[in-house]
Amino acid sequence: MTRFDALSRAGHRAALLVFFLAAIGIPSAVAGEPLTITTWNIEHLGSPGRGFGGGFGGFGRGSIPESMTSLPRRSDADLEQIAAFIQTELKSDLIALQEIGITGMRNGRSLSKPLDKIVETLNASGGRWAYFLPQVDETPAEDDEKNTFLGYLWNQNRVRLLTVFEMTLPNHALAGTAFFERRPLVGYFEAAENGDAWGNDFVIVNVHLASGQTLDENHLIAMTLIEATLARDLAKHAVKESDIMIMGDFNDNPSQVRADGSPMYSPAMDVHMRFKGYINLATAGEITTTRMNNNLDSLIDHILVNRSAQAHLTATTAAIFRPDSKRKGSRNQLATWRATFSDHFPLSFQYTTGTDTDVDFFE
Fold this sequence. Notes:
Blueprint: H1 5-23, E1 35-45, H2 76-90, E2 94-100, E3 104-106, E4 109-111, H3 113-123, E5 129-132, E6 149-155, E7 159-166, E8 173-174, E9 177-178, E10 180-193, E11 196-209, H4 216-236, E12 244-249, H5 268-275, E13 279-280, E14 301-305, H6 307-310, E15 319-320, H7 331-340, E16 347-351
Parallel strand pairs: 1-2, 11-12
Antiparallel strand pairs: 1-16, 2-6, 3-4, 5-6, 7-10, 8-9, 10-11, 12-14, 13-14, 15-16
C-alpha cells in the first residue's frame, strides 16, 4: 500500500513551509514536519480472544470466511510485520493503542512481550521507540481474555512524554454494563526532535468505551464524565493544557442509519461533544467503517479535537488505512490482513509542531 494521499499532501505543504522559513532566516524547528498521530484498536495484542465477534477473518456464526476457530497470538514474524507497517505505511510518530495485554512487570512498570518485539524491530532501523501501559497490582493470567489495556507507543525522536495517568473516574454500570472497558488513559506530550523540545504540547485522552453500539446512555455519560473532569485530573498532575484530543474505540456509531434513513443509534454523545466545541475527524463520508464487521458499516473509532487543538490540524478529516482499497471482491485481503494485524483499521491525522502558544503551569 502507498502512503495516505491526504497525509502526503499535508506533509508536502509542511516541507515547503520549512523551506520558505529557512530562506527568510527563521529556524525550521519553528515549523517542523507535522506529527502523524494514530489511534488503533489492535485486537488482543498479547492476550487470547482474537477473532471474537466474527466479521472478516474472525470466528463464529457468519464469519467471513466461515470459521469456528479463534485466531492465535501473533508470532514474532507477525510482530515484525506490524512494526514494518507502522514505519512504512502509517508512518506514525505517536499511537494511542487499545486492547494491549500486559504480560509481565518490572520495577513497577507494566510490560508487553509483543510490544517489546515491535519496539525492538522499530529501533533496529533507527527509531527510538517507547511504550507505556498502566500499572497493575499483578500480571494478568495468560488465559485472561479481559487482559486488554490502553497504551501509548511513540517515537522519542519526534515526541516526548511529559505525564501519563489513568483518569480517576467512577466506572459505574448502567443496564448491566460499565461505562468503560478501561478507564481513560491521559498522555501529555510535547513535540521534539532528537530529544530537543520544540515546545508545542498537547493532551491525548485514549479511550475504550463499553462494547455495544446500542448503549447510547453509557457512551454519553462516559464522554460527559471525561470532558467535565479532565481539567481537574490534569491539575492534580500540575498540568494546564488547552490542546485536547480524545480518541480511541468509542463503540459508538452516530452515523449509522436504518433502511428508511432514520438513525439506528442515538447521536447524543456526538451532538453533546460538538456542542462542547469538539469536531470529529472520523465522520461518515469517505470513512464508512473502522472495523471489519460483516457489512463493513461499523464506524466506531473516533478522534475528537477541541477548538484550541483544531488550529494545529492540517486537515479536519482523519485518514483511514484499509488494505482492500474499498474494492469489491477483496474479502480475502481483509481476512488475510486481520490474521496479522487487527479487526480495526487505524485512523491517523497530522498535528503541526512549532512554538507553544498556550499557557501551562510553572511557566
